[in-house]
Amino acid sequence: MSDNTTPDNSGAAAKGALDAYFKISARGSSVKREILAGVTTFLAMVYSVIVVPSMLGKAGFPPGAIFVATCLVASIGSLMMGLWANLPMAIGCAISLTAFTAFSLVLGQQISIPVALGAVFLMGVIFTLISVTGVRNWILRNLPMGIAHGTGIGIGLFLLL
């Protein structure tokens, strides 16, 4: 009885294609390590689909719509970073900006939701321009380390409240 079966190399071919497209081994990693890192990142970020709608819901935003938007931002943004920019980075909602919008702008300053969303959109456009033009890198290079560390600590303390 002869065995005409050949070994199935589809798993190896898939790993090879992933490695070639994302340059995984060239960056000093492996497919297994990148999958583990992706699962770990997902588990570290998944809390935002509960926290963001909860914070904005307290300010009058519709929690269901915010839940869907949070999921879409994270999934589409992360896919774009991975597939288009070829970078292993996850994109998600900025919890500090969410807290600022909900508690400072809408609840604290009594700014209407449409105006607050317009301000957040305008800020995104300005931050994009600052990043694209290189101003962001210039600021980061010239910012004293004490201010840089203090800013991170301040944002953390703000979120703690």
Describe this protein's structure:
- The chain has 161 residues and is mostly helical.
- The protein has eight helices and no strands.
- Helix 3 packs parallel to helix 5 and helix 5 packs antiparallel against helix 6.
- It starts with 9 loop residues before the first helix and ends with a helix.
- The model has no long low-confidence stretch (mean pLDDT 86).
SSE topology:
Layout: H1 10-22, H2 31-45, H3 48-58, H4 63-84, H5 95-108, H6 113-133, H7 135-142, H8 145-160
Helix pairs in contact: 3-4, 3-5, 5-6
Low-confidence stretches: none
Shape: globular
Count every beta strand, where a strand is a DSSP E run of 2 or more residues: 0
Q: Please report the number of helical segments.
A: 8
Radius of gyration: 21 Å
The percent range for helix content is: over 70%
The main β sheet shows up as:
none
In percent, how much strand structure appears in the residues?
under 5%
**Mean pLDDT score, rounded?**
86
Distance between the termini: 74 Å
Structural class: mainly alpha
Sequence of secondary-structure elements: HHHHHHHH
Which structural traits does this protein have?
mainly alpha, globular, 161 residues
What's this entry about, in short?
With 161 residues, this protein is mainly alpha-helical.
